[in-house]
Design brief:
With 62 residues, the protein is mainly α. The chain has a domain of 25 residues. 29% of the residues lie in helices and 0% in strands. The protein is built from two helices and no strands. The termini are far apart.
Amino acid sequence: MSVRKKIAEPNSVFSITITCANWVPLFRITNGYHAVYRWFDHLKQQGHHIAGYVIMPITFMH
């Protein structure tokens, strides 16, 4: 379920975690990495700072 909220607390630190049902590798399937970077650009334009991030794609071994 998606939740959207305006970030109203100035000078705060937030953590965001996103998971996919059944561990489907959606970033790899959709080549969606650029969407993450565009979102970071949007946050920066709003005056927020990105302290760090991790994208952990799943690699299936057969």
